[in-house]
UniProtKB/TrEMBL annotation:
GO cellular component: cytosol
UniProt xrefs under PROSITE patterns: JOSEPHIN
Enzyme class per UniProt: hydrolase
Catalytic activity: Thiol-dependent hydrolysis of ester, thioester, amide, peptide and isopeptide bonds formed by the C-terminal Gly of ubiquitin (a 76-residue protein attached to proteins as an intracellular targeting signal)
Protein's organism: Baryphthengus martii (Rufous motmot)
InterPro entries given in the database record: JOSD1/2 (IPR040053), Josephin (IPR006155)
One GO BP: proteolysis
UniProt protein name: Josephin-2
Role description: Cleaves 'Lys-63'-linked poly-ubiquitin chains, and with lesser efficiency 'Lys-48'-linked poly-ubiquitin chains (in vitro). May act as a deubiquitinating enzyme.
Documented EC number(s): 3.4.19.12
Keyword field: Cytoplasm, Hydrolase, Protease, Ubl conjugation pathway
Record bears the keyword Hydrolase: yes
Length: 140
């Protein structure tokens, strides 16, 4: 729906490898009554109102390889983090199965680790009501 008549889709990797831009993710979430909010890295992760956040989407650097040969190139990869029964899970499609991160403190450490590596973006997935009210951020 984002570029139905485009010969080359501007929302997708030129190589067709599936690294869609954030507009595709935002449109998909919007169709589910959700929103993606960009996280400003200058803010403290302690300010996240985790009980108001559905999940997280990270865009992280990923090494490129051809079989066993590692190339000196990096591309970006999307991964999701979601909480289930009090435990946060890394739902990266490159992993063989979801990996438990832990509770709130471990989640913040996980996010801090990715953000400290640079070239990483974090998006908060929230309901549209939370987006409109701004309830995803705790007061300072």
């Amino acid at each position: 729906r984002l570029a139905p008549t485009a010969r080359l889709n501007p929302h997708r990797s030129l190589l067709g490898t599936g690294n869609y831009d954030v507009n595709v993710i935002m449109a998909a979430l919007h169709s589910l009554g959700l929103a993606a909010l960009w996280w400003d890295k200058r803010r403290s992760l302690e300010r996240l109102a985790l009980d108001r956040i559905v999940g997280f989407i990270l865009n992280v650097p990923s090494p490129l390889s051809l079989g066993f040969l590692a190339l000196p190139l990096r591309r970006h990869h999307w991964l999701a983090v979601r909480q289930h029964r009090g435990t946060y899970y890394n739902l990266d499609s490159k992993l063989p199965a979801p990996v438990a991160i832990g509770g709130a403190a471990e989640l913040r450490a996980f996010l801090r680790d990715f953000l400290s590596r640079g070239l990483c973006e974090v998006f908060l997935v929230v309901s549209r009501a939370v987006e409109e009210a701004g309830d995803w951020l705790s007061p300072e």
